[in-house]
Request: fold
Amino acid sequence: MNKNIALDFLKVTEKAAIASARFFGRGDKNIADQAATEEMRKNFNDLDIRGKIVIGEGERDEAPMLFIGEEVGKGIGDKLDIAVDPLECTNSVAYGRPNAITVMAVAPKGSMLHAPDVYMQKIAVGPEAKGKIDLDASISDNLKAVARAKKMDVRDLMVVMLERDYNAKLIEEVRKEGARITLIADGDVSGGVATCLEDSDIDILLGYGAAPEGVITASAIKCLGGEMQGRLTFGIGELKNSNTDKLKEKAIKMGVTDLNKKMTQDDLVSGDDCMFIATGVSTGSFLKGVDFTSYGAKTYSMTMRAKERTIRYVETRHCGI
Reply:
């Protein structure tokens, strides 16, 4: 990929963030998500790319735009897989809470797992603990391994997990081991990224979350030199009473060959030429939210690329919007 294309993608997340931030605290998550999605799609189609949405708002019959399989861009340039979450943490925007972002991951065509809209068991850490974790190990063993790698006591580790009933047992296991926990209401992409940032107090991501967001998180972790493992899970949360056989058939049709496989970040995103781009909507653990000002708006973003192992923080003034 052309390394300068990250700035083009940055404009896409910035515009989406501004559009959704106008609905901050107004109690309607759907209109905030729609605003971000429409703006993202419009700006994608100004780019000199041949992009395909591999993770998006849903299938064609579920989403009018940025649906899985939708082609974006002008139809010239690089062939790319694009995983998007136009507004991660829609509830945070609707109800005036932190940690909402607009986010995407980009990689050459054929590089990304086409993850079905099911759950994924996840574990992620930063570079210091890379190679020390195992999704199949116990909570106790993983916490002790991370503590040793980071030269810390288990009691001083900070674990981030989604606050969900299906994570309740894991939360109790973490508490039993004496580690600290940050429970987040929505969106574990931010939590996964935070494990790899030097100025973050998050040491490990654990628990179940959405599989599509797992692919986006894996892209960021590859850029940051950390480690992530995941396994698709079909019968928890609101999917508990669903037809799991149909969900599994759907996953197979999307290209998943082993439904029980413990996947690494290289299984989720292959190669070293992926990018991660995010813009803050509401201030959170690693990005400030959109500021509206007398001249327009100010956005705060980050772009990362695995090949170069670079992280760029970008503050942008948007005048006259």
User: Anything to note?
Assistant: Residues 5-21 form the longest helix (17 residues). Residues 5 and 65 are 22 Å apart (CA to CA). The two ends are 31 Å apart (CA to CA).
